[in-house]
Amino acid sequence: MYIHQVAAYLPAHVITNKHFTHLNGLSHEWIIERTGIRERRKAAKGENTNTMAIDATERVLAAAPQFPATDVDLIVGATYTPHDTIYTLAHAVQRAIGVPDIPVVSISSACSSLLNAIEIVEGYFAMGKARRALVVVSEHNTAYNNEHDTVAGHLWGDGAAALLISKDRLAPTDLRMVDLITAGAGGVGKADVAVTLKPVEKGIVMPFGKDVFLNACQYMANVTRKILERNQLAVTDLDWLIPHQANLRITRNVLQALDLPEERAVSNIERLGNTGCAGAAIALADQLDQIKPGERVVITVFGGGYSYGAMLLER
């Protein structure tokens, strides 16, 4: 199974930390110290989870002449910030690219949904039900966010990414998916209350950020070690680590636990904020052309709820 192409879409509107200084009195320096975030993107009027997913899809298809839209035989969408819970982002993408009568699935496991979406593709491929899949991850966090929340209101940004995945190698530059692990940790710590987004309440809430921080650091480091070990690889064999883009302190903590230098990590949190399940895919899109033949990449994620995973890729 191969990732043939990845592309991202980011809204044009940039929200700097000054916005939250004026709104809540949170200083630029305070936000950077605790999160690493300098700015984030905000969807414009008329943009939403579905439109961003379509934009990312159009970009990835334009970059992949060997993978025309008519070849797509499976669409898997992922988000925890849906524009519509009935006509999902996957359905919107299907309509946009005009491929009828194929499996169309949308899922949510918070910020770890990217890997769950790819695992669904793995299952369809294994069963012989698809050969060329489109995975789309999109988050419209600012539609749900309460900016006046001084605990987490400054964390969130909007964005989307799309991945073209094939059962067979289409080009020498394709990334081979060597292994994939996902799991839930819903019974751990304060998983049930640490991060919530309830329709009848006030948007995204994170009352137990410390619990999220500690578990994210632990699970992402542990699952990275696990996927390397079960493929007879050492941490020193890893060329790039793409962690869930939640907090720069989490990334640095994971790197320290793995004894990896900071330059091995791919990070976009500084300029995009937390873009949910789209964050790691956007980072992969940014890094794609810099991955050299023979290099190995691990994408590791952690989501509220809790859920986690890791994927090992090789060019």
Describe the structure.
This protein has 2 domains: 2-166, Thiolase/Chalcone synthase (Peroxisomal Thiolase, Chain A, domain 1); 175-314, Thiolase/Chalcone synthase (Peroxisomal Thiolase, Chain A, domain 1, 3-Layer(aba) Sandwich). Helix content is 32%, strand content 25%. It contains 10 helices and 13 strands. The chain has helices spanning 17-24, 28-35, 49-62, 89-97, 113-126, 141-144, 209-229, 248-258, 269-272, 279-287; strands spanning 2-9, 13-16, 39-42, 74-78, 104-107, 132-140, 158-166, 175-184, 196-198, 203-205, 240-243, 296-303, 307-314. It has a 9-stranded mixed beta sheet, with helices on both faces. Strand 9 and strand 10 (203-205) form a beta hairpin. The radius of gyration is 18 Å and the shape is globular. InterPro entries: ACP_syn_III_C (IPR013747), ACP_syn_III_N (IPR013751), Thiolase-like (IPR016039). One of its GO terms (biological process) is secondary metabolite biosynthetic process. This is Ketoacyl-ACP synthase III. It comes from Hymenobacter aquaticus.
